Amino acid sequence: MSNALIVIDVQESFRQLPDWHLVSQPNIVDQVNRLVHAARERKDPVVWVLGTRPGTGTVFDPALGYCRLMDGLQPVEGEPVLTKTAHNAFTTTNLQQFLTARGIRKLTVSGIKTEQCCETTTRIASDLGFDVTFAIDATATTPIGDLGVAEIIERTEYVLDGRFATIRTVDQLT
Q1: With contact defined as beta carbons under 8 Å apart, do 68 and 12 qualify?
Q2: Is the pTM of this model over 0.85?
Q3: pLDDT of 2
């Protein structure tokens, strides 16, 4: 058990945003579930992370009820569901302690948004000494200004691959 799957922010909050219909990976739940199934078969831990912004009154404010996993995603007993208030999954959670206590040195990162919380978590994980695989088609993003989703994904692959992570597809990982 030296690898863990990290599922970041695949939560209902994003479906409430006006640009969700432009998402790069409309079947993100299916892609993540493929990784989850494979991880569980290998007896690798699955760690679920939810992004929150308490007190903001936005869809990321837990008081509104959208800070929950998207329908179709279901942790099993023993799989932690961590709540973060930073872009990365380490700074405001006990993720590093959880992984270190179990001797985990390899991570597979998936989730929403490709270039934001997933990429930032990957960079931090690499800096902390983890060997990271970035499951590119088990991440999702939406356009940013004039940048389309294909450009964002291509840029993320370019800046991460060989520097902070190895880029893989779900087919390559399952």
Answers
A1: yes
A2: yes
A3: 85
